């Protein structure tokens, strides 16, 4: 993740007071409608954090929940709305019914919402939880900040078209526990599928932006690749234990990897604040998913010219931190050996990190995240392609080679600086 994105995540976390207030919040999922308002509001605060509302509804250097963050979609830019209690520019005049319609059903007072707002996942939120969430959201201090949400080009700016999109891709139904699973797994499923909206980023999309049937198998997202979360050892979580998942969601790192890109912000603002019980429930859910078989490609031979060239540059540029063996440093620098993120067929995240660098999340459990500098200014496209091809075909990894053209395209897409001429 870039320095600016990390600073923004930390800034909005501390500014909103969320960082300091979550440890004592309750774990329970259902509050009676006649429970004390303060208890329901505090539970609603926890739900807002689990749903990561702050991250999307806060612009860079903006005020918490006042909106204004541009989301770059394949169809154009959608700017997040002001959800503070301001009556002119926010939702201060909304009723609970209007809030419920927007969050769970994708229908705002002025028309259908775009699914960049993950109502396709939030539809599963229970009646009791949406009521408690409202008790919290309605207390947000008013911020006068007018947002123009719809900046999409024609014809995507026609909201009525979403009637057809919803008919094709939206299942409007609350979460139903699986009677064949225990309470912990069902709790994890509820958090991952609804509030956590994991599938919104990690499930591939079709040409119209709807979820495919390849649930949790990884998807491209604003120059990053949200990785495969299925139980396969080559590109997914098959090697990870439940404790590995908990450690990652709590600290942003574990013995295999460190968070980067949008996931860093999700961990800083959301998952690190969840209770241990909820983190273990999420882990139990993902480990209970059916195993998925992935047939690895045949790795390139060590004698391959691109692999050989990449090894030379790796030893010069990368081995000081990642070591010549690719082992890295546990809970700090990712282990590149037999690494599912390295094996991903989509190299977007690897290219983003190498070109622009990344900073690990600064969390309570890991307050000093390790940083990696960007090499886009220093290395030519061919060098980066060779290094990544070497990494993706060494130490038990097996993934397609990259070309200089792949790097050049990524450099343009994510606006990485050009390399210094040789």
Secondary structural class: mainly alpha
Number of structural units classed as domains: 3
Instruction: Give the integer mean of the pLDDT values.
Output: 90
Share of residues in strands: 5-15%
Number of strands: 8
Main β-sheet, spatial strand arrangement: 1-2
Quaternary status: single chain
Shape: globular
- Major sheet attributes: 2 strands, antiparallel
Pick out its properties.
422 residues, membrane, two-stranded antiparallel ribbon, mainly alpha, Cytochrome Bc1 Complex, Chain D, domain 2, 19 helices
Structural overview:
The protein contains 19 helices and eight strands. The longest helix is centred in the N-terminal third of the chain and has 14 residues, at 3-16. By secondary structure, it is mainly alpha-helical. It has a two-stranded antiparallel sheet. Strands 3-4 form a two-stranded antiparallel sheet. The chain has a two-stranded antiparallel sheet with strand order 5-6.
Structure summarized in a few sentences:
It is found in: Cell membrane. This is Cytochrome c. The protein has 422 residues and is mostly helical.
Which secondary structure elements does this structure contain, and how are they paired or packed?
Blueprint (H helix, E strand, L loop, with lengths): L2 H14 L1 H4 L15 H14 L2 H4 L13 E4 L2 E4 L16 H10 L1 E2 L2 E2 L6 H4 L4 H11 L24 H8 L13 H13 L2 H5 L16 E3 L2 E3 L15 H10 L10 H8 L6 H13 L16 H13 L1 H4 L17 H4 L4 H9 L1 E2 L11 E2 L8 H11 L12 H10 L9
